[in-house]
Amino acid sequence: MKVEANVFNGIGLFLVPVIPVYWHYSHDWTGTTALALTFGLCALVGFYLYFTAKRIDLRPEDDPTALIQDGAGELGFFSPHSWWPLILAGAGAMGFLGITFGLWMFALAVPIFAFAVFGFVMEYYRGDHVH
């Protein structure tokens, strides 16, 4: 995780001199604000990754002497087939289209979205796939 922390912190350090130079040449408050917020986000994520890297053991990706075989094995559980992400994406798209074209469509999408979130989260806590 130290590599990822260094990437985010490096981008944040790059933005420190870029922000005033950008403002000096453009006098654009919108772009300057966006760059400042980007710096803040990079600093936040970089600090979190660095703080987390100090609390956990080295991963194979962080060890320069590690072999490819050290990273082998199970990485987690991933659902082999699930229809809930499709329903969730459809309800989200319907909600955003509802904001654009009519609030009646947004109002229809909200309960579908809530149902899809509940189904997606509880998929492996009920039915045939209970853990």
Q: What are the SSEs and their pairings?
A:
Blueprint: H1 2-26, H2 29-55, H3 84-101, H4 103-121
Fraction in helix: 55-70%
Tally of structural domains: 2
Assess the beta-strand content as a share of residues: under 5%
Give me the number of helical elements.
4
Rounded mean pLDDT is 90
Number of strands: 0
Q: What's the end-to-end separation, in Å? A: 30 Å
Indicate the structural class: mainly alpha
Computed Rg = 22 Å
Q: Please outline the major beta sheet.
A: none
Overall 3D geometry?
flat
Give an account of the 3D structure.
The chain has two domains: 2-64; 84-129. The protein has four helices and no strands. It has 131 residues and is mostly helical. Helix 1 runs antiparallel to helix 2 and helix 3 packs antiparallel against helix 4 (103-121). The model has no long low-confidence stretch (mean pLDDT 90). 68% of the residues lie in helices and 0% in strands. It is flat, with a radius of gyration of 22 Å.
List keywords for this structure.
131 residues, mainly alpha, 2 domains, 4 helices, flat
Summarize the entry for a quick read.
This protein is mainly α and 131 residues long. 68% of the residues lie in helices and 0% in strands.
